Amino acid sequence: MTLDPSEVDRIVFTALGEDLGDPPRDVTSAATIPAAQVDTAELVARADGVVAGLEVAAQVFAATSGGTARFEAKTKDGARVRRGDVLAVVTGPTRALLTAERTALNLLCRMSGVATHTRKWADALEGTKATVLDTRKTTPGLRALEKYAVRAGGGTNKRMGLYDVAMIKDNHKLAAGSITAAYRAVRAQFPDVPVQVEVTTLAEAQEAVEAGADFLLCDNMSPALLREVVEAVGDRVELEATGNLTLETVEAYAATGVDYLSVGGLTHSSPILDIALDLRP
Q1: Which positions fall inside the Quinolinate phosphoribosyl transferase N-terminal domain (predicted)?
Q2: Catalytic residue, candidates 85, 134, 146, 219
Q3: Spatial CB neighbours of 49, under 8 Å, sequence gap ≥ 6
Q4: Which residue from 25, 73, 92, 122 could staple onto 154, CB 3.0 to 4.6 Å apart?
Q5: pLDDT tens profile 117-130
């Protein structure tokens, strides 16, 4: 469970740029806090959840302090935390701490919210064959962080983008003429890329498997229909259920024997986990 340092640097640079402007400045902190003042602050959970993004928060404080802030994590990404828990302690120039505060919290709260939501799905699937997956329904610019947060919450990443897995969806089938034609076109041009096919009926599932698909995306199927697909083709491909899945229906879908449940809401609808930065008196 790692983050690409270059991605973290890019995101932190962009996020701080939104706050600090050009030339970069925090007018309130510059006006009210002596340049030489040093303080210690705590990152404190304001709600129960799962933490993710401590490394990212640390990088924000490092950026505003010129690398002088000392960040000490008191827990680790993926850990369950309770309201009032101290997640990290950071010591450095007070101006730098307060300049970093909102940017660090925006990223940490967002990532921890995704991890907390994902953990609910992972817990619901515990003891079953199925695993919860994310999708490409991520916040623009934050995909790497949000998919990392899914992993921290016990989920699994699907494709990162349009480049690493070919996904033949309804519009591709229509444009190519059929599932088989679309599959052959992809395989001819990109022979080494895994191919997934979106299917909505048992007949489509059978056609996709016969064409050579590596795995199927079973879209908006009822548990009963999904079970038929699992029984018909499940020993030949991996199967993923998607569409209108909820925590209330997760047990029924997992019971079909499907391999994965993909949930766009992990990244597009997760509320933040409330976390605060408190200066020590």
Answers
A1: 26-112
A2: 219
A3: 80, 81, 112, 113, 115, 116, 119, 273
A4: 122
A5: 999 999 999 999 99
Confidence of residue 47 (pLDDT cuts 50, 70, 90): very high
Q: How far apart are CA 45 and CA 56, in angstroms?
A: 16
Range(s) of the domain holding residue 195: 123-268
Q: Which residues contact 69 (CB under 8 A, 6 or more apart)?
A: 61, 62, 90, 91, 92, 93, 96, 97, 100
Q: Residue 18 and residue 5: Cα distance in Å, rounded?
A: 20
Domain match, 140 and 249 both: yes
Does one domain contain both 192 and 133? yes
3-state helix, strand, coil in the chain (%, to 5): 45, 20, 35
| Catalytic residue from among 83, 129, 169, 236 | 169
Is 280 an active-site residue?
Answer: no
Number of separate domains in the chain: 2
Strands 49-50 and 275-279: unpaired
Q: pLDDT grade, residue 234 (50/70/90)?
A: confident
**137 and 261 share one domain:** yes
Residue 231 appears among annotated catalytic residues: no
Per residue in 109-168, pLDDT (tens digit) is 999 999 999 999 999 999 999 999 999 999 999 999 999 999 999 999 989 999 999 999
